[in-house]
């Protein structure tokens, strides 16, 4: 017991003695005070940093594994509307091809949600509401979806849910989400000019759209939409894996059309593919004689195997910026070379695409070989390592049965990140924002 | 109805994943007709008729001409030039001046409100591979493949120690070059121990120096005898000599016996990395069976199991070593070659050394090695097969998916004992051969040939360059030397034939 001046009465309590490490001396007490103060400040810093960093680490995590492995179960609840089967099952029965084309995500999402733990049967506790409409299932004989009836179908479905349940009118759809995997999303047209003219369907303007189309500053991409990859058949791709020690000997690989050759015999000119971009045509014209570029319009049977033997896979935009090639490239470990200005890639807030792929501006296509060869080898190896991450591959796929970390979960994670809904989405009674009669007259007809 | 039919026809013409954009934009389902729609229908019908008459797509041309009046985002030329540029194929290669954005012919018939940047087809002035970029790309490919090998290939590859007995003879160049090139391709560290019978010679040294490998070249005092049996015994001694070098220098790695007459596959070197102590691989035996075909064919009909020309480990169902395949030498009994010069089949030993690999630590004097390994200093001379190096043959590990993969081939081809060849295979005129041996395989050559050789060669070169003019003169010269059956003459006929073709 140090003999010193009598301590002030406040320090007699045992707690204070504990705090000040049993010292009664004023100088050591001051030192202890400083120590505790520093400790608190440090704790405060740490807390603030971790609180701030959470969104940032999710976005730029180098291993691409952090956010991708988030489990949405427990973070949100989804209520699935029971629509009559003419909106979903009957359409699928009419044309089962819808299950295997690249827009099949809407069907598989419905099936996933029906049996997922995030589904709730009590709409009062739901955070998000899902309307199962298979809007992209009206196929031509060759398998292309016709979007002409989709606006009417969606309208009729929303009329149904707004009259049978009160939840649509509560927020005018702001806590509802729809899966619209068609070319230009909810603009419901395959030609870009027409799609832009129509814009997003007016009644869907407040809802969250889960779509494959993503392009910055474009009418058909709403702020807050979730971009997903197009559907690619997982079993087919898994079945065609080759041993990983097969040396990658193709430098650049691409298979697809460069010119849109109309089937007119007398047509001598070749239309460069799609709305004037010319990126694919430029690739062909500049590099058709280059042995490093394995590009052609053939449909080889070894397409998947060849991708696994290539270092770079080109993903130039065609009639829409997105393409299943991105998914295939990621699954097969081929670095995607994305030639599409202002494209928004799937799950862009969870996957660090700059670190995984190579972005080339459309006007830089003539210099593509220089751009690709000037990437330092260690960067290339790092990209390959990131691509080899199995969670990366799983995030691009829609497997059946579902696996943790796959594209379904990424969609749910994206929806969970948008929670909680801001108070402003809840409308005051009597308030109406959406114009139900907007849009071309043909859309207003009943379906 | 017509509109939807039109629409269907347009859509039907699309290929699976790509769309066309016809000049007549297909609007939404046309169940109703407005006056404008009717007007367009009539116009379309009219242009169809005109197209039928003219033979090409008239409507396109009209729309193109009409569209020149509206504004675009991309530059456009006058309508007449535009009509010429319809054939874009010819334009593109002919117009490589700078990064000229070429016009695309028939799109943007409507006023495009596409916001995202669209450029024409940009083609650089010289759209061919740039050699600098190609080299850089190849280096990148190499680096990626090295990384792949590191990741998926053998982990911790050990050094490979190759022991090769050799001696100077005609076929040495052939055999040794083959082995040398195989070893140069091996992606692992390598040490090549060349044991030469008859002492170290410049011939061998100069041959193997070209490889750039790490070589230990030692000589063995005895000369190669002429009978196969003796040869095998001497080679065994030479290999033991090589093993002793491994022990002296305390080399660490996997020892493989690469006879210079064998052919090795690259997978062999990857597979032997899996050997822990003592491994065995299957060797394909290519015994030249030219003379005994009839008996072989007969016997084959009777036997059930076809004879495999393979030597190596045999496994039971649970992939454990059960025994050994050896090459069946019964058909050759009594007819095999005894001496080097014999034209009969050369038979392999029961178990060739080249089918075995061992961890070099087994040869070290001290260090932890299994107790079933005999000390090589205690053995000398009569070792029939490498299995005599171990006390218990069951410890041998079968490699190459339990002996099912044949990774190297044994083939013994040698020239006659007295065959001569120019040293280092350089013909240095004048040849010093004064007394041609009667037993060389080459036919008798007249002694004046060496002096004629050079002028013959000299004359023939310019003759090749002229075509048929001098053929008659050459054939005259040919008839003069008809009786000469030299190799040069054969070469002449060869050239003649090519000219005739």
TrEMBL record, chain A:
GO terms for cellular component: Golgi membrane. It is a single-pass type II membrane protein. GO terms for molecular function: glycosyltransferase activity. It is found in: Golgi apparatus membrane. GO terms for biological process: glucuronoxylan biosynthetic process; plant-type secondary cell wall biogenesis. Pfam families: Exostosin_GT47. The chain crosses the membrane at residues 33-50. Keywords: Glycosyltransferase, Golgi apparatus, Membrane, Signal-anchor, Transferase, Transmembrane, Transmembrane helix. Residues 75-375 form the Exostosin GT47 domain. Belongs to the glycosyltransferase 47 family. This is Exostosin GT47 domain-containing protein. The lineage of its organism: Eukaryota, Viridiplantae, Streptophyta, Embryophyta, Tracheophyta.
UniProtKB/TrEMBL annotation, chain B:
It is an enzyme of class 2 (transferase). Residues 482-494 have a biased composition (Basic and acidic residues). InterPro entries: Glyco_trans_43, Nucleotide-diphossugar_trans. The chain crosses the membrane at residues 37-56. It holds the Pfam family Glyco_transf_43. It is found in: Golgi apparatus membrane. Keywords: Cell wall biogenesis/degradation, Glycoprotein, Glycosyltransferase, Golgi apparatus, Membrane, Signal-anchor, Transferase, Transmembrane, Transmembrane helix. Involved in the synthesis of glucuronoxylan hemicellulose in secondary cell walls. One of its GO terms (molecular function) is xylosyltransferase activity. It is a single-pass type II membrane protein. One of its GO terms (biological process) is cell wall organization. The lineage of its organism: Eukaryota, Viridiplantae, Streptophyta, Embryophyta, Tracheophyta. Residues 459-501 are annotated as: Disordered. One of its GO terms (cellular component) is Golgi membrane. Its EC number is 2.4.-.-. It comes from the Eukaryota. Residues 466-481 have a biased composition (Basic residues). Belongs to the glycosyltransferase 43 family. Gene3D superfamilies: Spore Coat Polysaccharide Biosynthesis Protein SpsA, Chain A. The keyword Glycoprotein applies. This is Glycosyltransferases.
């Amino acid at each position: 017991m140090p003999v010193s001046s009598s301590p002030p009465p406040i320090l007699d309590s045992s707690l204070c003695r504990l705090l000040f490490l049993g010292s009664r001396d004023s100088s050591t007490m001051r030192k202890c005070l400083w120590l505790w103060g520093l400790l608190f400040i440090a704790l405060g810093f740490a807390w603030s940093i971790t609180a701030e960093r959470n969104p940032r680490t999710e976005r730029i995590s180098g291993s691409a594994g952090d956010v991708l492995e988030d489990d949405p179960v427990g973070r949100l609840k989804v209520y699935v509307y029971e629509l009559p089967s003419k909106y979903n099952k009957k359409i699928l029965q009419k044309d089962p091809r819808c299950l295997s084309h690249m827009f099949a995500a809407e069907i598989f999402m419905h099936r996933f949600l029906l049996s997922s733990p995030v589904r709730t049967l009590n709409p009062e506790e739901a955070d998000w509401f899902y309307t199962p409409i298979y809007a992209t299932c009206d196929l031509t004989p060759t398998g292309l979806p016709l979007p002409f009836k989709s606006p009417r179908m969606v309208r009729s479905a929303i009329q149904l849910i707004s009259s049978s349940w009160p939840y649509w009118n509560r927020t005018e759809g702001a806590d509802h989400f729809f899966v619209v995997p068609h070319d230009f999303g909810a603009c419901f047209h395959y030609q870009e000019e027409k799609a832009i003219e129509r814009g997003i369907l007016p009644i869907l303007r407040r809802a969250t759209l889960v779509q494959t189309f993503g392009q910055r500053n474009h009418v058909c991409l709403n702020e807050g939409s979730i971009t997903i990859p197009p559907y690619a058949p997982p079993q087919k791709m898994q079945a065609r894996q080759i041993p990983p020690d097969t040396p990658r000997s193709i430098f650049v690989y691409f298979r697809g059309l460069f010119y849109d050759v109309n089937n007119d015999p007398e047509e001598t000119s070749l239309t460069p593919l799609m709305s004037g971009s010319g990126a694919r045509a430029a690739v062909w014209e500049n590099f058709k004689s280059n042995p490093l570029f394995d590009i052609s319009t053939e449909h080889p049977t070894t397409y998947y195997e060849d991708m696994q033997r290539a270092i770079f896979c080109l993903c130039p935009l065609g009639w829409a910026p997105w393409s299943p090639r991105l998914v295939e490239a990621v699954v097969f470990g081929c670095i995607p070379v994305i030639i599409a200005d202002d494209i928004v890639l799937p799950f862009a807030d969870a996957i660090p695409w700059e670190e995984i792929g190579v972005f080339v501006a459309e006007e830089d296509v003539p210099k593509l070989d220089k751009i690709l060869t000037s990437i330092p080898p260690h960067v290339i190896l790092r990209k390959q390592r990131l691509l080899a991450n199995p969670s990366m591959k799983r995030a691009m796929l829609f497997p059946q049965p579902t696996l943790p970390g796959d594209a379904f979960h990424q969609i749910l994670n994206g929806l969970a990140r948008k929670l909680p809904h801001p108070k402003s989405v809840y409308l005051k009674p009597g308030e109406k924002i959406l114009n139900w009669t907007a849009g071309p007259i043909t859309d207003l007809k009943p379906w | 109805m017509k509109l939807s039919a039109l629409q269907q026809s347009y859509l039907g013409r699309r290929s699976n994943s790509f769309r066309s954009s016809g000049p007549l934009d297909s609007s939404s389902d046309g169940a109703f007709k407005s006056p404008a729609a009717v007007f367009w229908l009539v116009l379309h019908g009219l242009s169809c008729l005109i197209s039928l008459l003219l033979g090409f797509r008239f409507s396109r041309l009209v729309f193109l001409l009409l569209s020149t009046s509206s504004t675009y985002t991309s530059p456009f030329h006058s309508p007449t030039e535009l009509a010429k540029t319809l054939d874009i194929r010819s334009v593109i290669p002919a117009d490589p001046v700078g990064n000229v954005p070429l016009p695309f012919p028939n799109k943007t018939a409507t006023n495009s409100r596409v916001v995202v940047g669209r450029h024409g087809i940009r083609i650089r002035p010289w759209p061919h591979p740039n050699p600098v970029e190609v080299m850089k790309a190849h280096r990148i490919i190499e680096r990626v493949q090295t990384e792949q090998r590191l990741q998926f290939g053998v982990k911790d590859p050990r050094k490979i120690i190759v022991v090769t007995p050799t001696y100077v003879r005609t076929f040495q160049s052939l055999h040794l070059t083959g082995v040398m090139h195989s070893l140069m391709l091996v992606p692992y560290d390598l040490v090549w121990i060349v044991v030469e019978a008859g002492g170290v010679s410049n011939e061998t040294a100069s041959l193997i120096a070209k490889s750039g490998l790490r070589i230990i070249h030692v000589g063995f005092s005895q000369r190669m005898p002429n009978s196969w049996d003796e040869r095998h015994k001497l080679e065994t001694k030479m290999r033991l000599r090589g093993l002793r070098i491994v022990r002296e220098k305390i080399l660490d790695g996997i020892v493989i016996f690469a006879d210079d007459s064998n052919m090795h596959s690259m997978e062999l070197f990857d597979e032997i990395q899996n050997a822990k102590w003592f491994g065995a691989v299957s060797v394909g035996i290519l015994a030249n069976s030219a003379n005994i075909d009839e008996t072989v064919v007969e016997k084959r009909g009777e036997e059930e199991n076809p004879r495999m020309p393979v030597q190596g480990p045999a496994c039971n169902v649970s992939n454990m070593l059960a025994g050994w395949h050896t090459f069946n030498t019964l058909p050759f009994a009594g007819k095999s070659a005894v001496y080097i010069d014999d034209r009969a089949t050369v038979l392999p030993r029961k178990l060739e050394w080249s089918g075995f690999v061992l961890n070099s630590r087994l040869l070290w004097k001290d260090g932890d090695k299994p107790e079933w390994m005999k000390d090589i200093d205690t053995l000398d001379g009569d070792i029939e097969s490498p299995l005599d190096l171990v006390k218990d043959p069951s410890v041998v590990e079968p490699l190459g998916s339990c002996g099912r993969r044949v990774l190297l081939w044994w083939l013994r081809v040698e020239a006659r004992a007295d065959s001569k060849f120019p040293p280092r295979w350089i013909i240095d005129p004048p040849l010093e051969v004064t007394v041609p041996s009667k037993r060389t395989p080459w036919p008798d050559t007249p002694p004046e040939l060496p002096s004629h050789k050079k002028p013959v060669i000299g004359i023939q070169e310019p003759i090749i360059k002229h075509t048929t003019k001098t053929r008659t003169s050459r054939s005259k010269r040919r008839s003069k030397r008809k009786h000469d059956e030299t190799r040069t003459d054969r070469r002449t006929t060869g050239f003649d034939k090519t000219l005739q073709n």
